[in-house]
Design a protein that fits this description.
Helix content is about 85%, strand content about 0%. It is mainly alpha-helical.
C-alpha cells in the first residue's frame, strides 16, 4: 500500500501543478454527478407526486397543456 502512495506522489510531482488542478476538477465533477443522482433519487419523486396531485385536484382539465400532453 505504501508503494502505491509513493508512486502516485511521484507521478503528481512529475506532472506539476497541472495534475493537481486536473485532480481537483475531476473531484468537483464527481461531486456534482453524485449530487444530481441524489437529487433524482429523492427530490424528483416528491416533486412529481406534488405536481400530479395538484393536477388531479383541478376542476378544469381540458386546458392547452392537457391537450398538448394528450397529443404525445
Amino acid at each position: 500500500m505504501g508503494d502505491i502512495i509513493i508512486a502516485v506522489r511521484d507521478f503528481l510531482e512529475m506532472g506539476g501543478q497541472v495534475l493537481n488542478i486536473i485532480a481537483l476538477v475531476i473531484f468537483l465533477m464527481w461531486m456534482l454527478i453524485l449530487e444530481r443522482l441524489a437529487y433524482f433519487q429523492t427530490e424528483v419523486k416528491t416533486l412529481k407526486s406534488n405536481i400530479q396531485s395538484s393536477w388531479n385536484q383541478r376542476q378544469e382539465k381540458k386546458s392547452w397543456a392537457q391537450m398538448l400532453l394528450e397529443s404525445r
